[in-house]
Amino acid sequence: MYSTERALAEHGAKLADAERSTVEQALNEAREAVKGDDIERIRRSQESLSRASKTLADAVYRESRGGGSGLQSSGAPKNGDVVDAEFRNIDDRKP
């Protein structure tokens, strides 16, 4: 719970409102579950928190890759595009 709370505090702005709400709900459920003795509830809340944490990690990853849109910059080749290039073997250079 602590690491998810910390990640949410640091990167929560990168989430859509629905995603942020899902993570917060999972955190609240986990907090309540650990107060009791119901092992099944604790396990369910832990699984829910793991999924929510993955959602948060995915959002941070998308943001770090250039904005969340999944689009590459206009100068970068897209998957499947052929890129022409010249290669020179530096070992073949003569002094």
Please provide a written account of the structure.
The protein is mostly helical. The chain has a domain of 63 residues: Substrate Binding Domain Of Dnak, Chain:A, Domain 2 (Up-down Bundle). It is 58% helix and 0% strand. Helix 1 runs parallel beside helix 3.
Intertermini distance: 62 Å
- Classified by CATH, the class of the domain at 2-64 is Mainly Alpha
> Which fold does the CATH topology of the domain at 2-64 refer to?
Substrate Binding Domain Of Dnak, Chain:A, Domain 2
What is the N-to-C succession of helices and strands?
HHH
| Tally of contiguous helical segments | 3
Q: Report the strand count.
A: 0
Arithmetic mean of pLDDT: 80
For the record, the CATH architecture of the domain at 2-64 stands as Up-down Bundle
Low-confidence residue ranges: 68-74
| SS content category | mainly alpha
Q: Main β-sheet, in a few words?
A: none
- Share of residues in strands: under 5%
Quick take:
Helices cover 58% and strands 0% of the residues. The protein is mainly alpha-helical and 95 residues long.
How is this fold's topology laid out?
Elements: H1 2-11, H2 17-35, H3 39-64
Helix pairs in contact: 1-3, 2-3
List keywords for this structure.
3 helices, mainly alpha, Substrate Binding Domain Of Dnak, Chain:A, Domain 2, 95 residues
